[in-house]
Amino acid sequence: MTTVMTNDADAVTAATAGFLIVGYIVLLALCVLVLVANWRIYTKAGRPGWAAIVPFYNMYCLFDMALGNGWLFLLTFVPCVGAVMNIVMYVKLSQAFGMSGAFAVGLIFLPYVFLPILGFGDAEYIGPA
Q1: Model pLDDT for residues 28-78, shown as the tens digit of each residue
Q2: How many structural domains is the chain composed of?
Q3: Distance between CA 48 and CA 39 in Å, rounded?
């Protein structure tokens, strides 16, 4: 009787490990896609592509592209203000690339979908409004 329970537990463990491995591979592919999309967004805006992978400097460049003042990214570290600043940054980023308000809503709620659209699409950087 204990042999059957052990085999069931082993099967559940193996299935769980399989799902986790597949999930991690999908997550890694998604992260690489967004990284490459960010690299393209930065190069479209005239910034170096490597800036997309440097911590803190990437946020400085993103806020500079969207709002015209990169130092505003420091406000993201303030509780409650950070969420509002990220929303404002995504709205201004969509405007800086000539996209609509609906695209900004997409950037806010589905950045893993809309950042590659912005990076690989035909949107051109206009500049901060």
Answers
A1: 999 999 999 999 999 999 999 999 999 999 999 999 999 999 899 999 999
A2: 1
A3: 8
